[in-house]
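Appendix B. Chain record.
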Amino acid sequence: MHSIQWRAAFELLKPITWFAPMWAFACGAVSSGASPDGRWFIIIAGIILAGPLVCATSQAVNDWFDRHVDAINEPQRPIPSGRLPGRTGLYIAIAWTLLSLAIAPLLGPWGFAAAAIGLLLAWAYSAPPLRLKRNGWWGNTAVAICYEGLPWITGATVLAAGALPDSRSLALALLYSFGAHGIMTLNDFKSVEGDRQWNIASLPVQLGVDRAARLACLVMALPQGLVIGLLYYWGQSLHALGIVLLLLIQFILMKKLLQHPLQRAAWYNATGTSLYVLGMLIAAFALQASRLPLPTELGA
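Structure tokens predicted for this chain:
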């Protein structure tokens, strides 16, 4: 490929989307409470696997199988614009899948299994015959798991030398995955017109823009409220208070979002969602703090 196609291929992999799973992997690693000493190579490999490999693969797969929809919604993308001609986009998706599977064993059996699950969901989301994205309930669930829960659990497991996270860490991973379903709903707002024409039943198409926006806000807020309650129950009141403050700011932003949801969905994903993921890190540090020995235990 010449230089223009290389730039288009990089654009196809959508680096801006890598942040979410990389951040979730880091949060899981923090939540484990394990020292990173001597494990930096594995941590870096895990972050690369979560973002530039598995997440990037999902973007390439989605753009290939969505090329007809993108021709309506976003014709400037690499495939519908012709900057990646023929089956180049499909070949990139296959190559990145194989590269991800080649790197995944560096993270041990769980790391490989998590990567394989993530890749299977990425193909199932976009490709026939399953094409989970045809229904917003199922498609958003698959993406939320891949973007939040799966990398969180992987990060926690890798830092704990292969031991699966405890029930508290799993609960946080599940709750933040649930909330990410709402984030994915807002992400679908930019594609409403093409989705309608190609019979893709995203939640904005199924429910209408206003109802989908209200549902997304509820789905994002509810798990954060439960996280706050759990952190208080676990004795981490300061961390819980931090998430309370973040959630209150989100409520203010949600009020603005609901006034003009179609126009402000992208704005909210850049503002309110940033506060959401910051709360994830606070929750991870809360778990880490809960694992530290008490002063009386240190003196024992």
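Further analysis of this model is presented in Appendix C.
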